[in-house]
Write a structure and sequence with these properties.
heterodimer, A: mainly alpha, 2 domains, flat, B: mainly alpha, Four Helix Bundle (Hemerythrin (Met), subunit A), two-stranded parallel ribbon, 5 helices, 72% helix, 2% strand
Chain lengths: 104, 211
């Protein structure tokens, strides 16, 4: 029990996280099967679900929830760069499509 | 002469050395730094894939729900399950239960190998349809280039992870590695799982070409 606390969680908690991850994956697969959303809508929903899954993995499986705040904060620059790149490249991809810059 | 108990300890500067500002050992901190840099690599590839897909007037949708998406879902299930067994291995290692640690590590490796076998089988199917790094039957060469680069780099990470876990399992069995070593290898393995959580929807679920 002491070791479990030092490790940051018990087997029951990890099992719950695993089941949550499986459930979210099942939702994603069902959405891909029924295909009721537009491409943009589908992308938004899938990315939202993926971010939740990534947060669950990082928080519990990678124990970030139980680490010192300074370690958690050290991830912010990387996340900021990725969001920044997305904000630059996605609009540029749409611009390239509209201008017909690149044709396969 | 002042009593020892009354002497206040000299406060150590968190950033002046001799302290642990992140409250983790050097191995764990090193792995976190590696994960940060590797996340940049995968982000660049995922953003590159998304860019060329958004900018293309047509994009191949070669993944039918059966068998491609179902197989990719089983691969996802394998990776998620391997993360569970990995975290159980770390818990067992922290408790000092070497036998259980090795058992869970072997289970994790088995799931990883299952993932690789299914992935290679899928690659074989696509190559059978004429998909190459530089060409494919749909006339969008960048599809093969981005798909094989992205999934290939991820698969390389999985294979590396299986070897890494094998070394750790052997070391734990011989009492050469501690719980921290298992935990650090676990961080790597969970990261590989985490990356797949973005590849799976972006590459497969957004490209379902039929049931």
């Amino acid at each position: 029990m002491e070791a479990e606390q030092a490790h940051g969680g018990g087997n029951r908690l990890y099992l719950m996280v695993w089941l949550s991850l499986l459930s979210l994956t099942a939702v994603e697969v069902v959405l891909a099967y029924i295909q009721v959303f537009s491409t943009a809508g589908m992308l938004t929903i899938l990315m939202f679900l993926s971010l939740i899954k990534a947060a669950l993995i990082m928080a519990y499986f990678m124990h970030l929830r139980f680490e010192k705040r300074s370690l958690v904060l050290s991830l912010i620059p990387a996340v900021s760069i990725v969001i920044g790149l997305l904000c630059v490249f996605f609009p540029d991809g749409i611009r390239a499509l509209e201008l017909g810059v690149w044709q396969p | 002469m002042a009593d020892r108990a009354e002497v206040a300890p000299i406060p150590a500067s968190e950033w002046g050395g001799g302290a642990f500002p992140f409250a983790v050992g050097h191995k764990k901190l090193g792995m976190w730094l590696f994960i940060l840099s590797d996340s940049m690599t995968f982000s660049a590839l995922l953003i590159g894939y998304s860019y060329v897909r958004v900018a293309a007037r047509s994009w191949p949708m070669p993944f039918r729900f059966w068998p491609s998406v179902v197989m990719a879902t089983i691969m996802t299930l394998l990776l998620l399950s391997s993360s569970l067994t990995m975290v159980l291995a770390v818990g067992a290692a922290k408790r000092g239960d070497r036998a259980k640690t090795v058992r869970y590590l072997v289970l994790t490796m088995a799931c990883g190998l299952g993932f690789v076998v299914l992935h290679l089988n899928e690659w074989k199917g696509l190559m059978g349809e004429g998909v190459r790094l530089w060409a494919n039957p749909w006339g969008v060469p960048l599809f093969g280039a981005t798909f094989f680069t992205l999934t290939g780099l991820h698969m390389t990470h999985v294979i590396t992870g299986v070897i890494y876990l094998g070394v750790i399992a052997a070391g734990v069995a011989r009492q050469r590695f501690t719980g921290e070593d298992v935990e650090v290898s676990g961080l790597y393995w969970h990261f590989v799982d985490l990356v797949w959580m973005f590849i799976f929807p972006l590459v497969y679920l957004m490209s379902v070409g039929g049931k």
